[in-house]
């Protein structure tokens, strides 16, 4: 072999050795049996120990065909050890049929007394859940025969499976109950001291036990009798349809595998009434809390439209016909007005609207009384995270200012997400708030089944993070920013506002936007919205086309500079109006960057502000959009002068100059040749 081939041979051998090492590290060792493998695999020592201590599980795994769902050691660190773990856990992780992942159906029967099911959720061939636990795909499908030749399969999972347990010293045993038997025997079950007597009584009185006994796999949301800091609901409000809204048929929804905010039809989804359920979660303090929402999209005289949210206080309880989640209150029932809804967060410090309630009370509390007096109101309520934003903390110290901003968050009519979507089909929907001349502007983004609603108020963009929360006199939407408190510089506002794309683009290519992030300066910018540029494209398509060509970027910059004022302060439209009044309603001088002596007139009407420039009145579509370093006024026309576009103007001049240059070059070439 030549010396040049030896390094190559060593390299190939090295690759094979690395592959062999990886195979050893990442695949189970070839042991004589599955139990032997469990005993030697360090990261599975906890599940091996409890199987070894349980005589039934130990005998089963030695003698029979089995599938073992084996939590790794990290999974055991996440649970609180209980005295009866050795009694319940080993057999609930074993089934007596050997099955690889592709062979798993919707459920398998465990070896625990009564053979309660283990529910399987397949989101993809490689993403499979066993109850709440996710299968570690790279450590699944380990097959081996035991000493009796019985085939066995092992799948490693990332959580410990938790079966339904009896209370300690319970006088009665309950084996593998369905949801109805679960409620009937709740006093004997270990439910963390929760009781479900009120809901059980209503189910019995209304003869609805059959819907909780149905065979198959379903999800049951069962309200507990009372949870601290949650308002109680009158039992008589729990009617037949309300009971149906607590059941999602033909879907077993454990929290882990279920997509957040995905809507599922409830048993109350009929021709005349349409109620969905969805799951969500939120970080509250150092904990993650889970919630279920019932969303009545088509209601009736008794059941209004809107969403009702309940906290899941004990989740993922497997039963014979599905899964049970204990919840803090009944779904679908709307019995609080908007004021009472906000007050319900008073004592729940980590809850979504606790900071909002505090800011209302810190500013005098009359805002709540105003909400009560409004028969139909929509409230856009900022979340805790919105008020915890460090960039707005200095503003929160001004109680008078905050009180005025609160009115920016309410609309004197009911607006559900569907209402806003319907209004937004042909145009960008806007609606008047309780602050004069301050509208909210909405934008709906649809991606498949998911809809995202964003809004702007007082220059701040916010996203609705929880929608359609129902109250007797209105609807509440939880948003992720406090409206009216600026948190973006002028350049960031241009970049994030979906109606200012054209001006933002021209500012970027011409480098005008580079200075708009300077927080040491104060900008007042009359920004043409996209509609204004479309009008220019219709009225003068050749000019519009050239302005968006890179070679004309400096011409575009010059036009934009006619819209921009840089001074030691930013100017509101009211500032301009007052100056006009002082001038007997004559023209106001705007010290813009390009035309230092540009004059406009100001008109203030019911429709809002307008400016007159070159004998044309131009509507100010949105005034006083506040930024951290200035104010934007969105206008309906581009301030482009005839001199910019005629033969002596900049665009034409640039073309003529280029032509003259070419002609001059030709003459020089002709003369010297």
Features:
673 residues; alpha+beta; seven-stranded mixed β-sheet; 29 strands; 27% strand
Write structural notes for this entry.
This protein has 673 residues and is of the alpha+beta class. Helix content is 30%, strand content 27%. The chain is built from 24 helices and 29 strands. Strand 19 (439-447) and strand 20 (450-457) form a beta hairpin. Helix 2 packs across helix 3 and helix 3 (45-53) packs across helix 6 (85-92). The radius of gyration is 34 Å and the shape is elongated. The relative contact order is 0.06.
How far apart the termini lie comes to 70 Å
Q: What proportion of the residues form beta strands (DSSP E)?
A: 25-35%
Shape: elongated
Helix percent reads 25-40%
- Derived from helix and strand composition plus strand pairing, the structural class reads alpha+beta
Arrangement of strands in the largest sheet: 10-9-15-14-13-12-11
Q: In terms of per-residue confidence, which ranges show pLDDT below 50 for 5 or more consecutive residues?
A: 18-29, 652-664, 666-673
Largest sheet: 7 strands, mixed
What is the tally of helical segments? Answer: 24
From the alpha-carbon coordinates, what is the Rg to the nearest angstrom?
34 Å
The chain-level mean pLDDT equals 87
DSSP summary, beta strand count: 29
What's the SSE blueprint?
Layout: H1 6-26, H2 34-40, H3 45-53, H4 55-63, E1 66-71, H5 73-77, H6 85-92, E2 94-95, E3 107-109, E4 117-124, E5 127-130, E6 133-134, E7 142-145, E8 151-157, H7 179-184, H8 197-205, H9 209-213, E9 218-223, H10 240-244, E10 247-248, E11 264-265, E12 274-284, E13 287-298, E14 306-319, E15 322-327, H11 338-343, H12 354-362, H13 366-373, E16 377-382, H14 384-387, H15 399-406, E17 410-411, H16 417-423, E18 430-432, E19 439-447, E20 450-457, E21 460-471, E22 474-479, H17 490-496, H18 501-509, E23 522-528, H19 530-539, H20 541-547, H21 553-561, E24 564-567, H22 573-582, E25 588-590, E26 598-605, E27 608-613, E28 616-627, E29 630-635, H23 642-645, H24 650-672
Parallel strand pairs: 1-8, 9-15, 16-22, 23-29
Antiparallel strand pairs: 1-2, 3-4, 4-5, 5-6, 7-8, 9-10, 11-12, 12-13, 13-14, 14-15, 16-17, 18-19, 19-20, 20-21, 21-22, 23-24, 25-26, 26-27, 27-28, 28-29
């Amino acid at each position: 072999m030549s010396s040049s081939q030896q390094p190559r041979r060593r390299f190939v051998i090295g690759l094979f050795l690395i592959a062999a090492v990886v195979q050893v590290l990442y695949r189970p060792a070839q042991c004589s049996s599955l139990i032997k493998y469990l005993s030697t695999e360090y990261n599975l020592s906890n599940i091996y120990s409890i199987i070894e201590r349980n005589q039934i599980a130990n005998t089963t795994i030695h003698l029979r065909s089995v599938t073992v769902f084996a939590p790794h050691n990290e999974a055991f660190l996440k649970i609180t050890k209980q005295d009866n773990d050795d009694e319940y856990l080993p057999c609930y992780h074993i089934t007596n049929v050997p099955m690889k992942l592709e062979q798993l159906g919707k459920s398998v029967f465990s070896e625990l007394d009564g053979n309660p099911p283990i529910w399987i959720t397949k989101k993809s061939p490689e993403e499979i859940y066993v109850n709440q636990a996710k299968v570690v795909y790279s450590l699944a499908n380990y097959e081996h025969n035991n000493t009796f030749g019985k085939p066995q399969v092992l799948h490693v999972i990332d959580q410990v499976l938790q079966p339904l347990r009896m209370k300690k010293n319970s006088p009665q045993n309950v084996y593998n109950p369905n949801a109805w038997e679960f409620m009937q025997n709740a006093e004997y079950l270990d439910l963390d001291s929760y009781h479900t007597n009120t809901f059980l009584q209503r189910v019995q009185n209304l003869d609805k036990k059959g819907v909780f006994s149905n065979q198959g796999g379903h999800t049951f949301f069962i309200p507990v009798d009372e949870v601290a800091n949650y308002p109680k609901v009158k039992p008589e409000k729990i009617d037949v349809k309300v009971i149906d809204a607590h059941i999602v048929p033909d879907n077993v929804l454990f929290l882990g595998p279920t997509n957040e905010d995905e809507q599922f039809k409830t048993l109350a989804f009929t021709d005349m009434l349409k109620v969905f359920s969805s799951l969500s979660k939120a970080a509250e303090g150092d904990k993650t809390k889970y919630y279920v929402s019932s969303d009545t999209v088509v209601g009736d005289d008794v059941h209004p439209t809107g969403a009702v949210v309940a906290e899941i206080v004990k989740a993922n309880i497997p039963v014979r016909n599905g899964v049970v989640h204990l919840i803090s209150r009944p779904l679908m029932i709307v019995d609080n007005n908007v004021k009472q809804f906000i007050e319900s967060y008073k004592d729940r410090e980590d809850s979504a609207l606790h900071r909002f309630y505090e800011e209302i009370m810190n500013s005098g509390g009359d805002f709540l009384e105003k909400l009560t007096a409004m028969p139909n109101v929509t409230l856009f309520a900022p979340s805790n995270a919105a008020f915890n934003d460090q960039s707005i903390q200095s503003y929160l110290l001004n109680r008078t200012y905050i009180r005025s901003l609160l009115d920016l968050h309410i609309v004197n009519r009911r607006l559900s997400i569907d209402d806003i979507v319907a209004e937004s089909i042909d145009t960008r929907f806007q609606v008047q708030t309780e602050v004069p001349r301050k509208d909210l502007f909405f934008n709906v983004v649809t991606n498949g089944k998911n809809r995202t609603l964003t809004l702007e108020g007082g220059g701040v963009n916010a996203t609705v993070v929880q929608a359609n929360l129902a109250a007797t006199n209105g609807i509440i939407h939880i948003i992720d920013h406090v409206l009216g408190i600026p948190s973006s510089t002028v350049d960031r506002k241009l970049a994030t506002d979906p109606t200012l794309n054209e001006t933002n683009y021209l500012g970027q290519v011409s480098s005008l936007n580079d200075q708009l992030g300077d927080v040491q300066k104060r900008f007042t910018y009359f920004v043409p919205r996209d509609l204004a540029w479309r009008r220019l494209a219709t009225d003068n398509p050749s000019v519009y086309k050239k302005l968006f060509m890179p070679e004309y970027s400096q011409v575009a910059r010059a036009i934009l500079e006619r819209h921009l004022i840089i001074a030691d302060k930013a100017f509101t439209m009211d500032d301009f109006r007052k100056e006009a009044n002082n001038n007997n309603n004559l023209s106001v001088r705007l010290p813009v960057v390009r035309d230092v002596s540009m004059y406009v007139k100001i008109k203030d009407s019911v429709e809002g502000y307008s400016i007159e420039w070159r004998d044309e009145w131009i509507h100010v579509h949105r005034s006083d959009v506040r930024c951290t370093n200035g104010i934007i006024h969105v206008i309906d026309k581009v301030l482009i002068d005839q001199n910019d576009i005629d033969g002596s103007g900049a665009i034409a001049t640039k073309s003529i100059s280029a032509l003259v240059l070419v002609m001059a070059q030709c003459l020089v070439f002709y003369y010297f040749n």
